[in-house]
């Protein structure tokens, strides 16, 4: 596994490659970010961003979404995967925000994961992007990049990947690193065709060297 120093060396190179890495889900409030992240489970940010303008135009706040007809929510998000369950979850989430949190998105992980459709990853994204709380959300890109570079063990589960990243990266860099690793995974170290031949990290990447040797 990469040492702390080598991990930061790799991440600094990613920062240079993607200096503008940031959340790509369109939103205008913590509430809209929360809903967009729930909708993005097993779906692309692009597909979510296509559906949310109409959804948020009709139902911009918890008050409006909580009383929206379920069928209309379904219609507005039906281009996103798992839309029926997600429609139920975001409506129930808005209801719970009103009932238990005075219509505001809570800032703690414990409260966030009590909301329908919100797991640890979603809570971490909202904590980091809406409230500036240090958190590393491990999505498919963060997990793949961490494993390919051997920042964490190949057989680590998502929680172990998160813990390893938190141990090796200074807290104040968690949110920035989360976005940067997503960009690196989404646009460079792609799942099927990683760009190893032009990768500035090839010198320290066993996966990349193996791929280049077997080409
Ligand atoms: Fe990803 Fe290839 Fe770069 Fe390794 S060398 S980090 S596998 S793109």
Structure description:
The longest helix has 19 residues, at 83-101. Helix 2 (30-39) packs antiparallel against helix 8. The chain is elongated and about 55 Å long. The protein has 2 domains: 4-21 and 137-213, Helix-hairpin-Helix base-excision DNA repair enzymes (C-terminal) (Endonuclease Iii, domain 2, Orthogonal Bundle); 30-131, Endonuclease III, domain 1 (Orthogonal Bundle), CATH 1.10.340. The chain is 60% helix and 0% strand. It contains 12 helices and no strands. The protein has helices at residues 4-17, 30-39, 45-58, 62-66, 70-77, 83-101, 109-112, 120-131, 140-148, 158-168, 174-187, 206-213. It has 215 residues and is mostly helical. The model has no long low-confidence stretch (mean pLDDT 97). Iron/sulfur cluster binds at residues 148-149, 188-189, 194-196, 199, 201-202, 205, 207-208.
Brief summary:
The protein has 2 domains: 4-21 and 137-213, Endonuclease Iii, domain 2 (Orthogonal Bundle), CATH 1.10.1670; 30-131, Hypothetical protein, domain 2 (Endonuclease III, domain 1). The two termini are 24 Å apart.
């Amino acid at each position: 596994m990469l040492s702390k120093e080598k991990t930061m060396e790799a991440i600094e190179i990613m920062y240079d490659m993607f200096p503008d890495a940031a959340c790509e889900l369109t939103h205008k409030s913590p509430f809209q970010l929360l809903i967009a992240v729930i909708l993005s489970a097993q779906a692309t940010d692009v597909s979510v961003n296509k559906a949310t303008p109409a959804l948020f135009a009709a139902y911009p706040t918890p008050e409006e979404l909580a009383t929206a007809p379920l069928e209309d929510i379904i219609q507005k998000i039906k281009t996103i995967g798992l839309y029926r369950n997600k429609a139920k979850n975001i409506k129930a989430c808005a209801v719970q925000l009103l009932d238990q949190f005075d219509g505001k998105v809570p800032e703690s992980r414990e409260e966030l994961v009590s909301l329908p459709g919100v797991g640890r990853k979603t809570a971490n994204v909202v904590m980091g992007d809406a409230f500036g709380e240090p958190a590393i959300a491990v999505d498919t890109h963060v997990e793949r990049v961490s494993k390919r570079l051997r920042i964490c063990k190949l057989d680590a589960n998502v929680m172990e990947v998160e813990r390893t990243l938190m141990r090796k990266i200074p807290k104040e860099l968690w949110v920035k690193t989360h976005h940067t690793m997503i960009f690196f995974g989404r646009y460079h170290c792609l799942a099927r065709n990683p760009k190893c031949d032009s990768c500035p990290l090839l010198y320290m990447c066993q996966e990349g060297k193996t791929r280049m040797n077997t080409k």
